[in-house]
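Problem 12. The chain below contains 706 residues. Write out its predicted structure in C-alpha cell notation.
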Amino acid sequence: MSERKDIFWRAYLVYFGFVVVMLVVLFKTISIQFDESDADTTTSLLTSTKEKIPKRTIKRMPRRGEILDANYTPLVTSVSFYEVYMDPTVVDAKIFEDSITDLSRGLSEMYPSMTAREWEEYIIRGRERGRRYLRIKSKATFDEKRRLNKLPIFNLGRMKGGIIDTEVTSLRKRPHNELMKRTLGYFKPAEGDAPELRVGIEGAYNEYLSGEPGEEIEQKLATGWKKTGQIVKDAVEGADVVTSIDKEIQEVAHSELLRQLKAQGAKNGCVVVMEVKTGFVKAIVNLSQAGNGEYYELYNQAIGTREVPGSTFKLASLMAGLEDDKFSIYDEVDASSKYTFFGKSLNEAHGANYGRITIKKAFELSSNVISKVIYKAYKDEPQAYIDRLKSFGLSEPLGIDLEGEQSPNMYAPGSRSWSGISLAWMAVGYEVQQTPLQTLAFYNAVANNGQLVRPQFVKEIRRGADVVKSFQPIVLNPKICSDKTLKTLQSCLAGVMKDGTGKRLTSSYFDIAGKTGTAEILNDDMHYGNKGEKKYLASFVGYFPIKKPIYSCIVSIAASGENIYGASVSGTVFAAIANKVYATSLRYHQAVNEQKNRVYDIPVSKDGNAHDLHKVMKALKIPYKDKVQGEWVSTKATNKEIDFTKRNYSKAMVPNVVGMSAKDAVYLIESIGMSVDLRGYGTVVKQSSPPGTPVFRGGLIELILN
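Solution.
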C-alpha cells in the first residue's frame, strides 16, 4: 500500500510540475508580446539563462515640403517609395477564404509578372507557413500604395487585412525638368569629411522644408529588423516654400533665352525678371552650353558670375555726375571715333564719329565719350566719384538669401589695381565688376523712383493652410538719388528706346525703358582673344511699361564673334519677354465686362439637331423661337432671338448638310448608308452630292468645311 501511494505522489508531482512549467511559459509568451521596453528578458526554467529580444528606436523621417511657384504650382516635390508586405496570419479565416481569389486577381492586374493563380498560391503558402512578412512589392509608388489599399482584404487595414506598407525612401523631383533647376538647387547634409552643401532655394530654406523627424520601434525577427508600428514620437512634415516665381513668365523667359543662345551659338546666358515695387523675382534663367552642344542649367550666373557690365554702367556714371553737379545732361561734347588716356585708347563701336552731341544723346547712342566726360569731371578728385557710386549701393552685395552671391569689385584710388586710365575705363563699365542681379537691382531702383529693394525669391512658408512665415519687401536704400536726377535719367532710358541703340526694339503694346551694353570679356584662359576669337558680354537691362513700371528685366549673353551687341542679341530677348508677359498678364488689359451698360449680341449658331440646340439655348439663356416640328433645323440670328426653320429629311434622299457642324453632317449622311470624306474644319459650306439626290448606299460624299 505504501509503495502504491508513493507512485501516486510521484505522478502528481510530475503532473503539477508540467502544469507550472506551462503556466510560466504562457506568462512569458504573453509578456513578450506586450512588453514595451527596448529589450525583454525571458528566464528558462530548464537553463536559468537570460535571452534578450532586441528592439531599437529609429528615426521616422518626415515627408519633405514642396517648393511652389507664386500660384502654388509645384516646382519641386517629393516622390515616396514604399516596401509593401502582407501578414496573412492576421486575416480572419472566412474572410481569407471568400476574398483571396479577388485579392489575387487585383494583384495580378497591378503586377502581371505573376498570374492570379500564382499570387493566390503564394499567399496561401505563406499563411500556412506562418509567414508574418510576405513581400508584395518593393519600391511601390504612392499611387500603387493607394491602389493596393483598396484591394479586397487589404482594404481592412493592417490589423485585419494584414497589409504593411512602410516608406523606405523619398526622392526629390522637378516636374518641369531644367526649368529653374539651378535656382531651385539642392541640400546635401555633411558626410564624413565632406561639408554640407546648400544650393539655391532648397538649400537656403532647408530648415523649413525638412520638418522634424519622429521616432518608432523596430524589432529584430528571424527575417531581419521589422517595424512594429509602435510610434514613440510623430514626425512633423516639412513646410512648403511658396516662391515669388511665376511659372508662366519663367517658361517664356526660358524659351526665349534658349532660342537666342542656339541662334548665336553662345556659351551661356541668363535672364532675371523682377517686380519693380517689391523686388520679388518672377523668373530667373541660367543656361550654359554643355559638351554635347545643348544648353542646361549648370550654374547660377545671375547671382554667382561677376563680370564687367560694360555700357549698362554708364547710367551709374551719369547719376554720379548729376548728383555732384558736375555737368548738365544737355551739355555738349565732341564725340570722335576714339578717346586716348595715358597712351591707351577707347574706341567707338563701328568706328562711329558722332561729332558734337549732348551728353543725353551720347548716352542714348551708348557713346564712349562719356569716359571723357567723367574723366574731366573727376580727374582731380577720383575718390569723390567712387564715394558717389558707393552711395548708390554699387559696392556692396545685395544680401540675398541664396548662397553664392559674389560681392561687387570696384577699384579705388591708391590701390594696386588703380591706374591713370581707371577713372575713364570705369565710367563706361570696365575696371568694375558686378553680377547681373546687382545690375538689375540698380536699374530697378531707377524704375522704383529711387528706392533700392533687395531681390527676393520666396514670398511665404506654409504648412497646409497655415502661413508659418511671410516675407515683405526689404528696402536697402529708400532714395539712392534726388528726384531731379531720377527724372532726368528716366527720360534718358526712354530716349535709348526711341532715338538710340534700342529704337528697333520697340513694343507694339507699350513703351520700354532700358539700356544696351556690350563688353569685351576674358576668355576661359583669362586672356582677351585675338580678332575673331574675342568673347563679348551682350546685355540689355530695363523696365516696362515706362508709366507705372511693373517689371524690370536683365538679359545677359556671353558669346564669341564680331557682331555681338546688346541690342541685337540680348535686347531682342528682352522685347520678346516683355511682349509675351504683356499678352498673358490680366493687369495690362481692361476686363470686357467692366462697363455697366453691356450690349448683348445674339450669337451665330450652326444648323443641327433641334433637341441639342434647345438644350444649349436654355443653358446659355439665349432667346430663340421654334414654331416648327422636326428633328433637324436651320438657325438664323435676328436682333432679338434665334429663329429655327425645319429641315426636310428623308432616308431615301441625300440630306442638305450645308451650315451644319462636321459631327451632325457625318451622322446624317452615315445614317442613310453613305460614307463621308471631310476636307477642312468648321462649318460645312459645300457637299459633292446635291441635296435631294437619290441615296446610293456605300457611295461617298465629299464635304468641304470652312
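Discussion. Residues 320 and 387 are 9 Å apart (CA to CA). Students who got a different answer should revisit the alignment rule from Section 12.3.
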